[in-house]
Design a protein that fits this description.
CATH superfamily of the largest domain: HUPs
CATH class of the largest domain: Alpha Beta
Strand order of the largest sheet: 3-2-1-4
Radius of gyration: 19 Å
Shape: globular
CATH architecture of the largest domain: 3-Layer(aba) Sandwich
Order of helices and strands: HHEHEHEHHEHHHHEEHHEH
CATH topology of the largest domain: Rossmann fold
Number of helices: 13
Length: 284
């Protein structure tokens, strides 16, 4: 099946979900969207802008765990959507519980994010805070979602039953450049649980990944193992990465790692949790 045909088929099967999503957001009256420029939050923001107009506002939080390229992308996308874009500094790294990098590290990060969102929503008179949590995320280890619940943050994608594939299909229809963007995660997710999160380690990972992106690779992770930078490459790019192993090695070592390792097992989301033995939620 051709890609465009597949996208249209997905959209046709999820038309009711799209209506439910629009109604859920419209029912908020006004909303602040926690916006990272990822696939999900970009879609939520675009729909919120469409149904709420100027009563939809984006907020992006900056910290050492967010690559500079992502910050610039968030600014550009917000401008293209004509959305008011708030930018704030996030201070999760100052929390020793976050810096210790436990398996629920994301809880402390999201607690700080949603504190900032809640404060901004109150300041600007916005009725709700929305995030990009989708129906598929219920199957993964997402401790940050507990922080959202504590702040009464709404997850309209999950409420409407939107899967990741459906978010991508509808994003394509809305002309969003994020529709086929590789799944992103904060830089701290490149550090094994228990390894302290420091600005220096995050910067190392950011430089290494920027180097690989400059080589044309799209879907990968550089895992930090002290002196070793371990590259997990998507299955469709693994053969090319091996063929260009000298360039890959230079990019990783150029970021400050003494050794560059190319993992023979392809990258997939959730591998860090698997290696740590983190139990995933059971979804009925």
């Amino acid at each position: 099946m051709e890609r465009q045909e597949l996208l249209e088929k997905i959209r046709s099967a999820s038309t009711a979900k799209m209506r439910a999503l629009e109604e859920a957001i419209r029912g908020c009256g006004s909303a602040l969207v926690a916006f990272s420029a990822g696939v999900d939050s970009s879609f939520v923001l675009a729909v919120a802008r469409r149904v709420l107009g100027d009563r939809a506002v984006a907020l992006t939080a900056h910290s050492p765990s967010v690559p500079q390229a992502e910050r610039e992308e968030a600014r550009a996308l917000a401008r293209s959507l004509g959305v008011r874009h708030l930018e704030v500094q996030s201070h999760e790294a100052e929390d020793p519980r976050y810096a210790a990098n436990p398996v629920d590290r994301c809880y402390y990060c999201k607690s700080e994010l949603y504190r900032l969102c809640d404060a901004a929503a109150r300041e600007h008179g916005l009725a709700a805070v929305l995030d990009g949590f989708n129906a598929d995320d219920k199957k993964d280890h997402r401790p940050g979602h507990a922080a959202a619940a504590e702040r009464q943050v709404r997850s309209p994608l999950a409420e409407a039953g939107f899967t990741k594939d459906e978010v991508r299909a509808w994003s394509e229809a809305l002309g969003l450049p994020t529709w086929d963007k590789p799944q992103m995660a904060c830089l701290a997710s490149r550090l094994p649980y228990g390894m302290a999160v420091t600005p220096e380690r995050l910067a190392q990972v950011e430089r290494a990944e920027a180097g690989l992106r400059a080589l044309g690779f799209r879907d990968f992770r550089v895992r930090h193992h002290d002196a070793i930078g371990r590259v997990e490459m998507a299955a469709e790019e693994l053969a090319r990465a091996f063929a260009q192993r000298e360039q890959v090695s230079r990019a990783v070592k150029g970021a400050g790692f003494k050794l560059a390792v190319l993992d023979l097992e392809p990258f997939r989301s959730g591998r860090l949790n698997e290696l740590a033995g983190v139990a995933l939620p059971v979804v009925a």
